[in-house]
């Protein structure tokens, strides 16, 4: 297969599947993984696809993030109540990770100045905590996304691999009882997946507008969650499902 033909096949596969790993492309194109990595680097520079940790994602179906300033005023009262409840779950000495959601930012603003380690990919969260001297703040670094004022990409994902935390507090674009949590943006979803991997306890913060929504990119299965903090009131069937999965529900 000529190099140009291989490039076209890679782009076609990425667009067809939405995302694909280096190992899969290596088998399908019958070349080494190192060759595929070089191909992906060249194709990203040419604007044909987007590199991700361990593979590539399509630009064709990529959905823009909702700007932070817009999310900040959407369901603000509900998010603040959810944040207040979540802060009560944190104890001095905890090591926690906060994502780049507005609810996590509300949490940061409400956190008392106590001995705590907070890891985040959010510039807004880090800035909010900067005046609290007893809280140690760690930022992932990575590629800056201006719409959400957060870091994403391979560097952000790799930096998360260095840590282990007691609790993760995160939000999402949508939550479906059967399909789990999802995001509109592939890069944010991949960072959140990594956050789930390093946390002992996974806590979803989701206002009622998120329920029943299935966004573009999968983040977590329902059974990967330990707690949900929300203003949504599930049906009896949904409550039974959460009970069977041992997921604690906190309704504010």
Give the arrangement of secondary structure elements:
Layout: H1 3-17, E1 19-21, H2 22-29, H3 33-45, E2 50-52, E3 55-57, H4 68-72, H5 76-87, E4 95-98, H6 102-110, E5 116-120, H7 123-129, E6 135-139, E7 143-145, E8 150-152, H8 154-160, E9 165-170, E10 174-176, E11 180-183, H9 186-197, E12 199-205, E13 217-220, E14 227-230, H10 236-244, E15 248-251
Parallel strand pairs: 4-5, 4-9, 5-6, 9-12, 12-14, 14-15
Antiparallel strand pairs: 1-3, 2-3, 7-8, 10-11, 11-13
Fold and architecture overview:
It is a single chain. With 252 residues, the chain is α/β, with parallel strands linked by helices. It is 38% helix and 24% strand. It contains 10 helices and 15 strands. It has helices at residues 3-17, 22-29, 33-45, 68-72, 76-87, 102-110, 123-129, 154-160, 186-197, 236-244; strands at 19-21, 50-52, 55-57, 95-98, 116-120, 135-139, 143-145, 150-152, 165-170, 174-176, 180-183, 199-205, 217-220, 227-230, 248-251. Helix 10 links the parallel strand 14 (227-230) and strand 15.
**Approximate helicity band:** 25-40%
What's the count of strands? 15
Main beta sheet: 7 strands, parallel
Write out the strand line-up for the largest beta sheet, numbering strands in chain order: 6-5-4-9-12-14-15
Q: Which of globular, elongated, flat, extended, rod-shaped describes the shape?
A: globular
**What order do the helices and strands follow?**
HEHHEEHHEHEHEEEHEEEHEEEHE
What's the helix count?
A: 10
Structural class: alpha/beta
Radius of gyration: 19 Å
Task: Give the distance, in angstroms, between the N- and C-terminal Cα atoms.
Answer: 59 Å
Any low-confidence stretches, pLDDT <50, length ≥5?
A: none
Roughly what fraction of the amino acids lie in strands? 15-25%
Mean pLDDT, as a whole number?
90
């Amino acid at each position: 297969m000529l190099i140009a033909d291989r490039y076209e096949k890679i782009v076609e596969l990425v667009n067809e599947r939405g995302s694909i790993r280096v190992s899969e492309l290596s088998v399908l194109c019958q070349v080494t993984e190192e060759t595929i990595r070089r191909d992906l680097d060249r194709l990203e520079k040419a604007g044909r696809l987007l590199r991700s940790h361990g593979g590539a994602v399509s630009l064709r179906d990529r959905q823009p993030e909702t700007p932070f300033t817009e999310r900040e005023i959407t369901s603000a009262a509900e998010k603040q109540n959810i944040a207040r409840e979540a802060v009560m779950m944190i104890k001095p000495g905890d090591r926690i990770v906060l994502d780049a959601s507005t609810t996590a930012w509300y949490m940061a603003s409400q956190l008392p100045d106590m001995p705590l380690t907070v890891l985040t990919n959010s510039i807004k969260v880090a800035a909010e905590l900067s005046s609290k001297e007893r809280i140690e703040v760690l930022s992932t670094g990575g590629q800056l996304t201006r719409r959400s004022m957060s870091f994403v990409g391979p560097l952000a994902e790799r930096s998360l691999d260095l840590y282990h935390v007691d609790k993760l507090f995160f939000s999402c674009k949508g939550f479906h009882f059967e399909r789990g949590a999802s995001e509109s943006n592939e890069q944010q979803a991949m960072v959140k997946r990594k956050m789930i991997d390093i946390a002992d306890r996974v806590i979803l913060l989701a206002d009622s507008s998120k329920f029943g929504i299935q966004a573009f990119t999968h983040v977590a299965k329902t059974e990967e969650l330990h707690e949900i903090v929300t203003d949504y009131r599930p049906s009896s069937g949904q409550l039974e499902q959460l009970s069977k999965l041992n997921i604690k529900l906190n309704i504010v």
